[in-house]
Specification:
With 297 residues, the chain is of the alpha/beta class. The chain folds into 3 domains: 84 residues, Arc Repressor Mutant, subunit A (Orthogonal Bundle); 97 residues, D-Maltodextrin-Binding Protein, domain 2; 97 residues, Periplasmic binding protein-like II (D-Maltodextrin-Binding Protein, domain 2), CATH 3.40.190.10. Helix content is 40%, strand content 22%. The chain is built from 11 helices and 12 strands. It has a 5-stranded mixed beta sheet with strand order 4-3-5-12-6, with helices on one face. A 5-stranded mixed beta sheet has the order 9-8-10-7-11, covered by helices on one side. 24% of the residues are buried. This is LysR family transcriptional regulator. Pfam families: HTH_1, LysR_substrate. Belongs to the LysR transcriptional regulatory family.
Length: 297
């Protein structure tokens, strides 16, 4: 270890070249050093290894037994070091075999991952996706530890310690089955409040959300009769009953069994964002994945 502390990279490169050229003059020319500088390096190396390393010979210099022992390990070490500090090679999705771990609730799955999936499978067929539901408070820790690569969440709930990129803005619409007898615009606020409604409560069991907060400002309340934890179940409920729900507009695009109208009260929307940790910010594969997903929504 003491010898290692006395070494620097220039000494090792000089030794590797000397063992290859077995000539101080040619070594100096290859390394663009002066001949005295190479001689100084050789003197330091001899002191560190307590061995002459190279001895005068009839046609230059010949390595000692110790120098021969060093030749291959030194070449391997310098090659590994050069590889380690070389710039990252461009990412090739066609030949990639990455497994990406993504945190998303069912809304993010439906509106972000699903639109990107077919294109992702075509562009990077050898890759895999693992999707998790992660509690927002744990996102930073999971990302730091490399357990997730990307997360999709509401931008206003900015996750500390993570980078982010806004993907799109979302608004709420009033949704019910096609042909619903009471789902006709224009709808008054009073009529809206009388409709039996479903609410999505990710934490489970809640009957109060952003719509109820806005209604309370004008002294009104609505009739929420069902609380569920996931959006997927809500769409099935709406298609088969006369219940209605305030849902993000992207969630019901292209749903033939559902219709959406503007609600009679303005409900604040939100921005959906993609989050990731600094550790993978400059990784070419990660950069490609982020750009691909952002271009798919």
């Amino acid at each position: 270890m003491n010898n290692l502390r006395r070494l620097d990279l220039n000494l090792l490169v000089t030794l590797d070249t000397l063992l290859s050229e077995q000539n101080v003059t040619r070594t100096a020319q290859r390394l663009n050093f002066s001949q005295p500088s190479v001689s100084v390096h050789l003197a330091k190396l001899r002191d560190i290894f307590d061995d002459p390393l190279l001895l005068p010979g009839p046609r230059g210099m010949r390595p000692t037994a110790r120098a021969e022992e060093l030749r291959q390990p030194l070449q391997d070490a310098l090659r590994a070091l050069e590889h380690a500090i070389s710039p990252s090679s461009p990412f090739d999705p066609a030949s990639a075999t990455n497994t990406w771990r993504i945190s998303a609730f069912d809304y993010g799955e439906s509106t972000i991952l699903l639109p990107a999936l077919a294109g992702l499978r075509s562009a990077a067929p050898g890759t895999r996706l693992a999707i998790f539901e992660v509690t927002p408070s744990l996102l930073t820790k999971k990302a730091e530890q490399g357990e997730i690569d990307l997360a999709f969440h509401i931008h206003e709930c900015v996750v500390p310690g993570l980078r982010h990129r806004i993907l799109f803005s979302e608004k709420y619409v009033l949704v019910g089955r096609v042909g619903h007898p009471k789902l006709k615009a224009p709808l008054s606020v009073e009529q809206f409040c009388q409709l039996e409604q479903v609410i999505v409560s990710p934490d489970g069991g809640g009957f109060h959300g952003v719509t109820d907060r806005e209604l309370s400002k004008i002294g009104l309340s609505r009739c929420v009769v069902l609380s569920v934890p996931h959006f997927l179940f809500v769409k099935s409920v709406l298609a088969t009953t006369d219940l209605v729900a305030m849902l993000p507009s992207r969630l019901v695009r292209g749903e033939p069994e559902l219709q959406a109208i503007e609600p009679p009260i303005e409900i604040p929307g939100y921005e959906m964002a993609m989050f990731w940790h600094e550790r993978c910010h400059r990784d070419p594969a990660h950069q490609w994945l982020r750009e691909f997903i952002a271009g798919s929504v």
